[in-house]
Amino acid sequence: MNDDYDDDFLDEFDDLDELSELDLEDDYHLELPLEELDDDSEFKAITEKPSLAETEQLLRLGKNLKPAQYPSLIYGLSDLSQEEATSLRPAWRALETTKRRDLTQQLIDAVEINYLLDYRSIALMAIEDEDPQVRASAVELLWDDESLEVMHKLVHLVRHDKGIEVRASAFTGLGRFILLGEYDEVPKEEIQFAQTAAYDSWKNLNEPVEVRRRALEAFSNCTDDRLPEMITEAYKSHLPEMRVSAIYAMGRSYDSQWTSTILREMDNENPQIRYEAVRAAGELEIKQAVQQLGKLARGEHDREIMLMAIWSLGEIGGELPTKILQRLSDKAEESDDEDLIDAIDEAIAIASLGSIDII
Q1: Reduced 3-state DSSP string for 91-157
Q2: What is the pLDDT of residues 197-214, one digit of tens each?
Q3: Are the CB atoms for 220 and 248 separated by under 8 Å?
Q4: What is the pTM of this model?
């Protein structure tokens, strides 16, 4: 560790006499998307999982289903066998489209709060829904499923589904499988289907932008000689959303050739580009980014970018990032921001495992 660099870094924080006076905004907050279920007391009131018959009865209430009944239904739809989920199909299809959309979103929000909930079976049923928004949400519900069955379904969706949002969501899911292939956790002959689907969609200029950019993001999880050219093409695009995906892919590529680009884009006025650049800095463990990440972690007004800067400091690791995070932790304690405290604590735990030599 270069102590002289450390001192210089601390002196360069704008409008501050010392790092210990970092100013975290008081109005930062996290909004839980599941409004009906953000009160733990509602969950505690449910002592038993509703039976399949009771769950079906709730579904058949249709438009008469009230928000207060969602907790029971959400528990009832968890941990179903495929046969049980299939038996609910008639009641599911009888729901109005808006109600099915709302319900699948409720399931997504619920599993974000309680990761023990398992909606695999209901998602495999809903993935065949007539409404593309419901199908896209069903794909999202399969976010942690690593089975070849699901991978094949996602490949089928990206090649044949007519819904743009469905195909884009499916490519996001396929990115996970492509990464598993890099770690030899999925047979190479199987993962080739996913890689080929992603590359083909990227090369097809007739594809919607949203599909092409998600295909690039998925493909960026593999080691392939074609990837740098794909990233360069996306980065040169006049479309901001395509540039966002290009920077995302830079981080996923684990290729240091993108370092200078990422450092530059960390100051971009577009918050989406800035967010992805901050994430890429952590994924590539760019040591030169520590100073800027420290500034973003204490003074960025966009909550998500600030949290990502904290995460990236942890990923880079070592003495200096750890020191920054510890100072941030002190200020978070003063403001009693539990979510921020948790994020910083996790980053400190990771940062302390690494080492950093900044020249």
Answers
A1: HHHHCCHHHHHHHHHHHHHHHHHCCCCCCHHHHHHHCCCCCHHHHHHHHHHCCCCCCHHHHHHHHHH
A2: 999 999 999 999 999 999
A3: yes
A4: 0.83
